[in-house]
């Protein structure tokens, strides 16, 4: 359970991350974004095969 200040920081962080993500991907089509995500998931899979355990949030949509 977070304090009110903690919840405010989380909300502000999400807003900043959304702005950064939008800015980084502004000239990419949806198809390109999907392709990039597919590449990242393949990288995660390769790392797992090497014995590296990526953070849980990278594993959740992981398909090979």
From TrEMBL:
Full protein name: HTH marR-type domain-containing protein
């Amino acid at each position: 359970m977070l304090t009110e200040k903690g919840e405010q920081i989380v909300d502000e962080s999400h807003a900043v991350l959304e702005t950064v993500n939008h800015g980084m991907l502004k000239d990419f089509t949806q198809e390109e974004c999907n392709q990039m995500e597919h590449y990242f998931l393949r990288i995660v899979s390769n790392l797992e095969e090497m014995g590296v355990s990526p953070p849980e949030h990278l594993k959740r949509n992981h398909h090979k």
